[in-house]
Amino acid sequence: MAHDVFITSLGKFLPGEPITNEQMEDYLGRVRGKPSRARARVLSQNGITQRHYAIDREQRTVLRNWDLAVNAIQDALSRSPITLGEMDLLVTATTQGDLVLPGFASQVHRALGGPACEVASLHGICSSGMQALRAAALQVSGGEAKRAVVCASELVSRLLKARHYEEVTADDSVPFEAEFLRWMLSDGAAAAVVQDRPHPTRLSLKVEWMDIRSHANRHELNMYVGARYTPEGGFGPTWLDQPSVTEAAAQGAFNIKQDIRRLESLVALGVDGFFALMDQGLLRPDEVDWFCIHYSSHYFKKPIVDLLGRGGVRIPEEKWFTNLSTRGNTGCASIFLMLEELVNEGRARPGQRIYCMVPESGGFITCHALLTVVGPERAATPSFESADELGPLPLSPRADGEPVREQLVRELTHVWVDFESRLQQVPILDKLRRGVFTVEDYRELLVNMRQQVVEGSRWIARAASSITAEHLALRSSFIRHARDEHRDYEMLEGHYVSVGGTHEAITRAPKNIGSEALSAWMFHRASQENPFDLLGAMFIIEGLGSRVARRWGTAIREQLRLEDEQVRFFLYHGDNDATHLDRLDGALGSGILTPELAARIVKTAKVTARLYLLQLEELGNV
Which of 78, 150, 268, 318 has the lowest CB atom count within 10 Å? Predict the structure, then answer.
């Protein structure tokens, strides 16, 4: 790798409840209503005790393959330093997508959402997951991408339904080469986030090297769908060459098949690649802590062990890791599911090395990789949502016999609760909550907040100028408020420069589209005569200061290891905005409140809250 590449998070999705060996035919169906004669034999050899299917007992598809992929990606992102909106590359792997066309990555991207980004679809069988990881790793290593998402997903149960086999044979027999795969394969998906830096608070896996080689030039394709292998050798007409899809189905073109007699050759190819990597000095078995070798059946472990032993490699049993028995053979997702369990269930430790091998019988492809477990750069910070750290709600109801005011406080409380819950879903604040906030995030937040703060004192001053003579006391209150805050933006500029930005960059940065909308709304309301409904806007903005600003500042300081002076804006407003709310209380008690004004205050609070969220959601979108 030209530059360091890290798997910073792993996620999985296994559809439905685990299905035992005894339940398999309840889901896949019995061919012509009769139990399989091969099932017990195959299961006794492969060692799989449970698996997952995305079909139900009536053989109906419950979830599509892209659904499995999306769920796995979302699980990975929930542990990741990045958000979906920051993804700049999506690479997917599968044996069979939901649609013949377009590529599976496009199918997943449509279901997943997120930003416009580069996509790549790796189509194959077991090896395609490793191919997808390598494709993403090379892009990140070369600087073409910084935040890649890789997903390997399999939904093979659709191919294993009894009705597909009944279409082919007129009697009760099913060729073993077709039937045994019914008891070998299962559904599931796993995903990884790949970046150019490790996770700040969790374990990461550094990609040391990857080696992928096809031997299809010397071996016949062995696991296939779409044609029949003829007795004379080679493939007969493919399903597209048949007169009709119905005739192709009758010929068995859609049944997945494999010649198990040739799998011993695949074992030899995988072990030969292992020895070649040793000879190149890339692999030192005694320095490896975990050996994650994908095999379709526990039957193949002994041949692998025997061949390695003949070459002088003896792997202690405690270093082998597989979850084949509990996850089943999920094809290209299998190696990711192994890594996910090692990392997310606490088995991996910083400094350990993980060797991965995936041999694929379909195209006789061998994949090898070496990963190093990297510890976090900093300890995880405690949640900043503790109730005892929260400031008071922006307004507290009073038992003072003022029904209009009491109703207003109740309605504003509803607005605030909704606003605060939505704040937690804003991507940049979600990163802060999860402890994965970066210096780059802080700089972007400062740039966009400065725009709102600069405009804040201006719209308050505009509102003061729109207040008529009979309300001079309130005009004076607005003016004092504008005076108190008109230079707060200078603190933000200082913070920005202190964390690596330039003064020119922050002062010349344009407003994002959310800030444009918020500013336009504020000036529109401030230009109306006696715009007292802006008390609803102050309720939202000053409430942020009094209730959450200190939490944000403390979390940013701890996660980025900053000094108080570098987050002073947030700490200051956390300590002083309660005074500003007292002015809001005073304005409401000045005699101006009517049912009509109360309704306008609530409306303005709702609009301001939504637009404030929008400016945080649209950071950088100018």
Answer: 318
